[in-house]
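Researcher: Please translate sequence to structure tokens.
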Amino acid sequence: RDVEAAYAGQRTAVNLAGIKKALVRRGDTVVSPGSVRASRMLDVHLRCLDSSRRTILNNSQLHLYHGASVLLAKVVLLDRDALSPGESCYAQLRLREPVSVKPGDRFVIRFYSPLETIGGGLILDDAPVRHKRGDSAVLAALRIRESGSDAERILQQLAAFGCALPGTEQLAQPLGMDAALLLPQLGQLATAGRILEPLPGRYLSSAVFDGLWETCRALLAAYHARNPLHTGMRDAELRQKLFRSSAQS
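Model: Translation complete:
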């Protein structure tokens, strides 16, 4: 029968008009435009099965199973050199081809050869930057992504945007949250003074804003020390140096 919507767990046929059969492969994902990001890296909480006969070594090549897709991935263990059966840790999966996922999705990993299931886990970040191993700040951020409150996760993601002033949709995507549900939480954080809304529907972390003031003071103090006879720094010069410094930090 025809339906207007399909939900997780249902078997659904979709009529895709204007697409040749040869262009569709097993594992492809049908999404609303702009609702997911294609990425070659994933931050995950990875677990090696108790029953596994193998230890997952750092830089191991494994098969990643997500939905109906199967991809080759290199596993970078972020806080250890090996993951033994029954253990879990944070890891980064580096893929040979892009995949579209959502934070909170589950996955399975199988050994490269011979093929046998050895573990799985939870996707925490669908498009991360490349991490250094053993970085305590990265591990702390992943703990918030996995088990932090909604407010903690929102504040962390907003801080990651720096001075870019993201809108609700931009924030909702990496958080894996619905924009309509995110909006009232942003209002609560703004009322509490933890985020700012300098433009309608655009947000800035209060912590990032406070850091801008400190950087601004330091830039002006250095300028006046070098140029004691000048009345002040030009607006455009201050803006350029201020936001360049923010991007680097």
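Researcher: Any highlights?
Model: Strands lie at 37-48, 56-57, 60-66, 69-77, 82-83, 88-101, 106-111, 117-125, 195-199, 202-205.
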